[in-house]
Amino acid sequence: MPRRMTAAIIDGKALAAKVRAGLGAAVAELRAKHGRPPGIAVVRVGEDPASKVYVTSKEKTAQELGFASWQHHLPETTTQADVLALVRRLNADDAVDGILVQLPLPKHLDANVVLESIDPAKDVDGFHAVNAGHLFQGRPSLVACTPAGVLRMLDEIGCRLEGARCVVIGRSNIVGRPMAMLLLNRSATVVICHSRSDVEAEVRRADVVVAAVGVAKLVKGSWLKPGAVVIDVGINRDEAGKLCGDVDFEAAKEVASWITPVPGGVGPMTIAMLMSNTVAAATRRLQLSSTRTS
Question: Where are the domains of the chain?
């Protein structure tokens, strides 16, 4: 028998660079028409090491794109009232188009209350209930960055979603639920798997698998339908301490048609889509401001 070809790799780093390059013209246009670039403010509370890395990467990308950017790093002991007061100031600042509150927050803070205090028009993370509701209704909105990045990857490889059976593993408000809505809005048949689901049985029938549950190597290669497209959102450590995803990559790549690696897959796309959301938010706000003053 001829040797079976392994899956093609979806290069998240390369695609993220392509997305960022495409934002350059939009940033230049905003400067020319309105006299300023998009502005993004990031709020980080405490000393979570991963959050520090993520925020640094986001700030670096924003500066490379020519954004105005501000980082507000508050101490671990900051009260909820103080965090909410900062968000209110950023909501009122016309130079700020996007506000991102880095999660997780310290345990004494209510993340839901903080996120809901952000002006939906500046919610570039796409977590506010207003933006989530717009997505649910299939209306244009600021969409959660990781699911938006996954959809962009699927489009890049020419994956036909209309009528496809798509399985989303995980039901978080950050990835699983908005991912399912994006796929549903593309006329896919969507199954959301969670801790009470027969995950293996659902994956076996899936044309597209999006794994976002946070369990190292949960999805086995033997579960996959031959030729399935596999998107791995998970970031975990295996028994040897090596970074890995929610999918057993080495086994899955022998069955799938396309697959994302970990790292280098979905991760870079999240930041790229954050920047895209910020440009979109700036464009809408500045156009609205121009309309009001004309």
Answer: 34-119, 144-268
Q: Which portions of the chain are predicted below pLDDT 50?
A: 1-3
| Cα separation, 219 vs 211, whole angstroms | 8
Residue 4's pLDDT is 55
Q: At what angle do helices 145-156 and 12-34 cross, to 10 degrees?
A: 110
The pLDDT score that the predictor gives to residue 2 is 39
Fold observed for domain 34-119:
Rossmann fold (3.40.50)
Q: Residue 79: its pLDDT value, please? A: 98
The superfamily in CATH containing domain 144-268 is: NAD(P)-binding Rossmann-like Domain (3.40.50.720)
In the chain, the amino acid numbered 49 is P
Strands 236-237 and 229-232, sheet pairing: unpaired
Given 125, 232, 246, 248, the catalytic residue: 125
How far is residue 255's CA from residue 271's CA, in Å, rounded to a whole number? 29
pTM confidence score: 0.94
- Residue 263: asked if its preceding bond is cis (omega within 30°), the reply is yes
The tokens of 285 are what? 């706000």
From the candidates 58, 217, 225, 253, which is the catalytic residue? 58
Active site residue 58: yes
